[in-house]
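Usage example:
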Amino acid sequence: MLGLNKKDFGLLTIVIILTVFAPFILNPFPEGSALAQFNAGYPDLMQRLVIFGIFAIGFNILFGLTGYLSFGHAAFLGAGSYAGIWMIKLLTLNIIPAIIASVIVAGLFSLIVGWISLRRSGIYFSILTLAFAQMSYSLAYSVLTPITGGETGLQPKVSDPRIFDAALAEGTTPRANFFGMFMNDSYELSLAGWVFTFNVGYYIAAIFMVIAFYISIRIFRSPFGLMLRAVKSNQQRLNYTGIQSKPYTLAAFVISGMYAGLAGGLLVAMDTQAGAERMFWTASGEVVLMTILGGSGTLIGPVLGAGFIKYFENIVSKINESILQAWFSFMPEALQEFFVAIFYPFIGKGWHLTLGLIFMLVVIFLPGGLMEGGKRISDLFRRKSKTDSGSGKVAPEAAE
Amino acid sequence: MGILEVKGVNKSFGGLRALSDVNLNVEEGTVHAIIGPNGAGKSTLLNCFIGKLIPDSGTVLFDNQSLLGIQPHEINQLGVSRVFQTPEIFSDLTVFENVIIACFAKRDGAFELNAIVSVASQKDMHEKAKQMLIDVNMIDKRNEIASSLSRGDKRRLEMAMCLAQDPKLLLLDEPTAGMARADTNNTIDLLKEIQAARGITMAIIEHDMHVVFSLAEKISVLAQGTVIVEDKPENIKGNPKVQEAYLGGAH
Ligand SMILES: Nc1ncnc2c1ncn2[C@@H]1O[C@H](COP(=O)(O)OP(=O)(O)OP(=O)(O)O)[C@@H](O)[C@H]1O
Ligand SMILES: [Mg+2]
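Running the assembly step on the lines above writes:
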């Protein structure tokens, strides 16, 4: 169906179901309960989950398939953001031109960066991409201030030209919309103690993510995707088999750059602002972590990794000392102090410490990421239920 | 006129003269064996044919076209394929994927953004890859990951990949090393069959004399970087120069 085999179609269906019902799934705890702080079903976070999912899906097409590790992909996300915000300022508050422009601009930018960086491979390639991204970041802060807004970044103003829109009344906030539906509009559903929020922006971003995911499946299963995996496996052999690898790696680089641009454009569509910090090297590093944490080279791993990191970033960094004290309040005071002191460095601003530890544990014990963890668990159950079924490495099936 | 003409090729690594004034003429449609003791420069010579090394001097003509300074992928597209001494395969892909990549490479050597159709829907490529695996007797291993294969199987896989490309000239660097006797005989039969059916020219480096004498129509003996004898197989065995080269290489 849709040009996918049964297994991939099943996977796509699961992703669609999860994204459609995310407002329920991410809000499992009743409002006001002690556990409600672990709910993630609010618009801002849900939007980020799917948008960074798109970023990671695209990154995986480069890194997961070809093995080329880019440390500069945030530059394309940032470039997409700037392109998007300019469309919103110049043309219309409708998000469609912004999103189209962000993909195109990021694509062109990645063509240039890829063309140059792909002259080298391995660590030199990574360093080149990192250098490009840091250069873009510095430029955005300094000489390019007229285009980027420098430190303050860019936001839509009432006085912007917006040639396709009717003028806004003085004092109103310009809000991004999709043919009249505002991104920050939400419908709230109260059921018993639960409150579920259905947000326009989230669903629009989710539709883009499902499409992005679908395209990535098609790429994985195509002859092009096979060539990319061949690059990762043995580039020499590919050359001696009559294929020049550079056009393939460059195409993968540009495609992943366009995915990053789409993510940047969607970020702008949701919060109508763009700033240079989106290009900072930590942002490039984050998508690497997402992909590796989830399982690079797998279809769904990067989405899981992105969700995992964005979810815990929000939740863990919200926990503060008084919440910790409340958790350990059942203990004698000395013990309570002790545990609070131990956990304190890992919460709030200490989120990166927690992330670092999780990342190290995953890389050491689950080199294949969360996907490998899932597979090991399901293998465990399968072995219990069926003793005989052989090792059976799953290989893409021949057409029969 | 040979399909591959090598004249006056020299190659040094630092102070080591790996090839000195090598001449070789491979006739179209024949099997030409290159033999010689370890370190004689046999693999180095093949490296000069596929764009891996550029000789310091001399000429290498394939189909009357110089191969020197041309990129490896372009040389392959001209019709030269090579099986390496240490197998060069896509180790973390399946056997079937290895072969089908070679099939695709034959068709779109030029870059083609073939990103939307699925590999599974390319029936002609599937048939070809499958047939190739049947030919080398590996069809039952199609879904195994290539790195898990035995050394002999890796080499057979590499041979299948090269043959899938319908090369005009097939370079084989010790194709039966690491194979069991039965597999060696199968390989000899396979190469004979292919040679008879498609008339592919082959240059084969081999230490196993059984293989050499079963296949070769002509033999060049390489010792210390030079061709000391080039002759028909029946004249090689008794040649005192050859015996000396091999005995000389022993100590
Ligand atoms: N890239 C290189 N750099 C330096 N020396 C090299 C290189 N390649 C080969 N040599 C040297 O050149 C000589 C010829 O090596 P070559 O591999 O061609 O021998 P061979 O005839 O294939 O031997 P064998 O039968 O062991 O495979 C050897 O002394 C080897 O050490
Ligand atoms: Mg050798």
